[in-house]
Amino acid sequence: MAMQTLEDSDTQLILVQQNLRSLPQELVKQHAEHVELLDLSHNCLRDLSWLGEFEQLRHLVLDNNRLHEAQLRTLTQSLPQLEVLMLNKNEFSDLPSTMRLIRRLFPNLQYLSLHGNPICPDGLELQPFSGYLRYDYAYYSNYIAQSLSKLKFLDHGLVQRTYQYESFPISSYGKQLIKTTSF
Fold this sequence. Notes:
The protein is of the alpha/beta class. Helices cover 22% and strands 15% of the residues. It is built from 4 helices and 9 strands, in the order βαββαβαβαββββ. It has helices at residues 25-31, 69-73, 95-105, 131-147, and strands at residues 12-14, 37-39, 59-61, 84-86, 111-113, 153-154, 157-158, 163-166, 177-180. Strands 1-2-3-4-5-6-7 form a 7-stranded mixed sheet, with helices on one face. A two-stranded antiparallel ribbon has the order 8-9. The protein is globular, with a radius of gyration of 18 Å. Mean pLDDT is 84; it is low at 165-183. It comes from Drosophila madeirensis (Fruit fly). This is Leucine-rich melanocyte differentiation-associated protein. InterPro entries: Leu-rich_rpt (IPR001611), LRMDA (IPR043313), LRR_dom_sf (IPR032675).
């Protein structure tokens, strides 16, 4: 298979729709020292262990890869320099587990997008949003904001560190507001 590498500059490596399961070692050796933006969208990635070698990486796009928590676990070395992580349209389904992994692997993350994953109740295809989706999204975004203290942007907006939302279950079936704040 001929690998088609599209590079806008020495600091960007874009390998979209290449049917990759992992990044070939020759590409890692060739680009790891200088790449700041890596886009591997629309592939079939299963192994991310090589990512730790990209010490200059600040922006990582892994949209549409059918990724789930197990693939993040293949990355054993953290990337403290990473600021932007795009994981849209994957298969992340366990919010606490995903946040623990992201917090450990990308401790200085400022922008995260998880649209189109089972853990993200964005309902972008539904117009207008139902009240249930608004509640779920508020819970989801608050959970992530509290998990990732340096996060500034989540999905499509600024991170807010304080939310008010209805809690459940409520034994008296009455409405109760809980105000949450970051740690």
